[in-house]
Batch of 2 targets.
Target 1
Amino acid sequence: MKDAEFDFALAIGGAAGQGVATPGNILARMFVRRGLHIHAYNAYQSIIRGGHILLTIRVADVELPCHGDKIDLLMCLNQDTLDRHLQILGPGGRAIYNSDKLEPSEPPEGVTLVPIPVGELTDNNPNKLMQNTAFIGVTTALMGIDFEVLAKAMTEVFKRKGQDVVDLNAGTAKAAFDYTHANFQIFPDPVPSGDEPLAVWSGNDALAMGGAAAGVKFYAAYPMSPATGVLHWMAKNARDLDIMVRQIEDEIGVANIVIGAAHAGARAMCATSGGGFALMTEAIGSAAMMEIPVVYINVMRAGPSTGVPTKTEQGDLWQMLGASQGDFQRFIVAPKNALDAFNTIPELFNLCDAAQCPGIVLSDLLISEGTFSVPAKEINMQPEINRGELITEPRLSNDNGLADPGTREGGGYKRYKDTENGVSPRAILGLEGYVHVVSTDEHDEDGVLISDEFTNPHKRQMMVEKRARKFEGIVDRIAPPELEGPADADVTLLGWGSTWGVIHEACEQLSNAGIIANHLPVKWIVPLHGDEIEEILGRSKRVIIVENNQSGQFARYLRSETGFKANGHIRKYDGEPFMPHHIVAGVQEQLANETEIYVPRHEIMV
Amino acid sequence: MSETKIAEPTTETTSKDFKGKVDPDWCPGCGDFSVLKSLQVVVSSLGLRPHEVVTISGIGCSSNLPGYFNAYGMHTLHGRSLAVATGVKMANHEMTVLVTGGDGDGYGIGGNHFTHISRRNVDLTYLVMNNQIYGLTTGQISPTSEIGMKTKSTPFGNVEKPLNPITQAIMNGATFVARGYSGDQKHLQMLMKEAIQHHGFSLIDIFSPCVTFNHDNDYAFFRPRVRKLEDEGHNPEDWKSACEKALMWGDEIYIGKFLHVQRPTLDDQEPVLEEGGPIAHRPVAITNEQSETIIKRMM
């Protein structure tokens, strides 16, 4: 990534129900239309009205790995926002608020207050949302954007509400825009224009689209934050993509219904969060036992139990590793960002089809509910699809074109044939010539149960080994983790999944502070490239593992798989994601040998 | 509304064609033998061939049925057969889907799915071999065990009121609801045939005595008590009368077809199934046009 010439963060704070989303959408739309990149994080709570929301939109002329460290412009929709966040603004920062109603405290040095007489500018319109419209006009002016750009975005957003609404909002925004130019200095660096307009998606959109691209034809879900966005995307786009979308009574039903659809021959997927995933686990083991490929997505939130539904965490790793009883094969993958999540789903489906087993995607609130720009040309909706050894054509067993009905119809087909690589050709349901039974009980090659009356230890051993062979060498089909940054570094930061972006930026900041840091991001959890990771870390002077949980779940996993013990750890488990400076501070403190485990304290109270 | 389509047979099948690879391991005298036999007779009489049928079960004695039945089969988790079967039916609605299981599997651990499949009216047939006991775990109360019943888990007698699967299914929106008795195969076969042909969710709760663990509700209990609704002139479109008769339990217990009504099924109402055949058979990759539509929405 090249260095940014323009890098600006705007935060909009208010209560749920005050309309934080609309100014966010309009401004984001203006930015991506001019080819600027955005990375937005919404800190919110599990409440429909009230509480406190802080939407941070970072905008830059380069791709952004995370939502960054700072807020340049704070739009306060209520007193609470002003009270909570005015004091964290840095020099050059500004705070917009309604001077008719709100009373700021003394701002920090270098911070400019932007009081706006909302009543005067809106002709005392009683509609409280007009304040937001005025603030959009103020923001547009402060950022040095022409009013026409805003007028166009507003027309798009409000046109379905009628021309009157468009005119009213545009008029109010213009009054506020003019007032701002007349009374305040605009930011010294006006918003530039980038190249082509960019597309916008959330991580949940990306996961859903990855499924669509992979050829998912059946999607089921039970609503659960922060995974519900996948369901919403699927439901909205289903008819255009031939995808059947069903909301099911609980996650147990979800996990099983996708197995039914997958066994029938469709690519099937579902998404949930940790609690729902807990209900799904028995079914995941059954998919492994019946050798049916299905993709399960877990969008992690802060646990345990109901936990903090609207906050992020990487606390479900061991739940994934231990999901379902018994010893079985499954993939576990933790993509690093939305685009990676999108590309991972088709790759995972191909692997699951090849090995005829379940696959688990670990996302989290940070990826899934974040809003990101993405160049449209990077979205490949037609990736390579490989369904493995799948039988989809009937087999007629005699010369006149008719299969023998009855017992012989299977024609000796063995669904679980003991093959060299453990993969047994899989016939989809309903094909003539391949009648068979699949079972969650242990079974023989032809599907007959060996669990009850016909228990046979040799056959049991054979079947366990057959399934295990499917994973021999499978790690070689997956790209190993690669060290990012200089090979010779003072410290290696190891992260997994969604921490990629924030560690990436922390490494740049460390470099500016005179500490050479490199970064080993791990994406594939199972199978794990243990040898490669050990080799890379063996060359490191000092290894610090960064993760969004309290007990160091990945550190413990890595140690259990490789014996590798890190020098230090940076962990965060307050529900909010890491910001780059948290990691910088952790590294600095650890290099000074002050602590083995550094836990940052989140500064933004949301 | 049409009946569920069953293709004209190209080859005659007999009940023997549906005999599985292994013989049942049920206890001698178990009611489930009659259910299996009846199902084999009915399915072959409908001209179905093994590859056109899938039997899906959960866990329990009766849930072993797919292993004894020559057709596609899925022996799923305890209580989850209806969920898996919904996925199968929606992904390939051309298949004849039969779900088989017991009272514990379907009304106990799987009770939530039983509720919701009824209201969804998924076009499949659910055969519950109701023996009012947990057999495979060697005899504990089930959701249909009678008050006072002594089992290993209720040595001093059951205090919990049994649920009524018939009224429950009716209230939840099932469109074909019947009760059979494994001691009357001819009647049972009549019900099975209609249930499979019915376009919608069909439940047949079948008294299928456990001769090993339930000595209260054995053949001697049912034989003098069962009355056929067909002999009473019951109107299967009258849900109120159906519920009244289903709740009767004592010297007279009704078997037969309680409810038979028509309502759109889940697959009838699924827009993706309007054309193009089963989704399981459709091309996996999306088209250029679909890709463009989706990306345009993001701009």
Note: Residues 399-409 of chain A have pLDDT under 50 and may be disordered.
Target 2
Amino acid sequence: MSLTETDWTDWAGRVALLGLLGLGIAAIFLPMVLTLYLSMFDEQMIVFPPHGYTLAWYGRIAGTFGAAIWTSLQIAVVAVALSLALGIPAGIGLSRHRFRGREALSTFLLSPLTVPGIAVGLAIYILAIWLEEKSGVTLAGSLRLLILAHLLITMPWVIRLCLASLTNHERTTEEAAASLGASPMMVIWRVTLPAMRPGIIAAGLFAFIISFENLEINLFLVAPGITTLSVSVLQYLGYHIDPLVAAVAVAQMVIVGAALLLLDRFVRLGQVLK
Amino acid sequence: MRQKLPLAAAGLLGPATSVVVLMLAAPLALLFRDSLNRFDVTELMIETVTAANYTRFFTETFYWEVLRTTILVAATVAVLCVALGLPLAWRLARTTSRWKSLMMLLVILPLFIGSTVRTVGWMILFARNGMMDSVAGLFGTRVDLMYTTTAVIIGTLSVNLPFMVLTLQSVFEGIDDRLTEAAQGLGATPSRAFWRVVWPLALPGVMISAILSFILGMNAYATPVLLGGPRFQMMAPLVFWEFNTNSNWPFSAALAFILMATTLLLTSLSNFLVPRRYRA
């Protein structure tokens, strides 16, 4: 059988397709694989090929980045708690009530996701300085301000996930509870919240990751002594690239990966991210 | 049934709304106000109302160049993202493998790892005496990609691609597979069935994903800083640099607004590129 022209273009197309697939996979995963590889070098810097391999760099993470990791964790945990405390009621409010301006309010509450982090960070810093001048309360460079800023970017995710977990929620159980004499607070506590449980757990994990990984807002709000992991890794990379920083990067990937695996058990990630 | 805001809803939504007002609306309003102030080397910021910061941007070629580079990088990355994202997303949407959810997770994972961490790998590859350079050294040549536009484009592409794959995948999932089967049943080759049946249906979604990638590229910070080096300038790093190094808050505020306005303008313009009948 001779090779016709359509066969040939089909074959060429298939090879091109495979090439693009390979390039795409490499573009996403190659840097992560390389980082993992470098983190095990038994060298002070990139010497390729290395003389040997070691896991010792992982033990040295705490020495250089320990304080920053601790700050990042503190901010993330408090931001998660606050964003759940404010985001869950907002999610319930938006899904339950139909009022004029509901669409606009929902857009407004999710808007922190669409403003570039660099603008948000600069704006919050400038407001903090302005308030300091007016009131004398120190805000800039404090953990409080970082937490509040992180609340702004984690809360929309909580609202979004709560809204998603309530879209197919049957109001009849709530109505039944209310007609049996449960107060509105009781209905939320005993009926609505238990129904939202997977969504709430997912929201908490999501909020944690979003806070932990933030860089742009942190850039403006960190101060000497209060530096987040993302900022200190960026600063470190400005001077050297070595197996230690690769090990920190891998550790971060592992933490986020574990959180995502956990999250995947509660919500279908593909659905949530749309 | 639409009514005025009931008291219960106000109680539920009030606290969250006040956070967005206090931490986003008020700061952005003040930022805009400050962008109209004047910078002074000794007094830093002098209160006035002037458009000088904006006119400075549009009259000095240096800043034009920065904006041009930013748009160029973001647009190139968006186009490359479509080219590399389409095949991956299509495969992911149409696979019947039992590993599908694992594959999805692998695409989602990088989305939540900060761009700094994901740039480390490219630095290892591109750095002087890095891996590419060392391998090239064995053949007697040198490869120095570090601190080039190419490096920034590759790094940003790598950061944006998972977003692209994920959004395109959901676009493809929304297109009924029976349409392709029908086209092939009528004698179309798989590639013809794709380009004539699936592609027109997917086009609005592809456009939206490309715009998303463009926006991410316009606002990129870590990749241009780490892979572009100190002499490579893009808008987001410039905003921080003017703030941090020059303490010129009014100008950096103006830069932030110029960046947001340009992104908004270009993304709404690009909407007209999609033929009307395909618009979402």
Note: The domain at 76-230 of chain B is CATH 1.10.3720.10 (MetI-like fold).
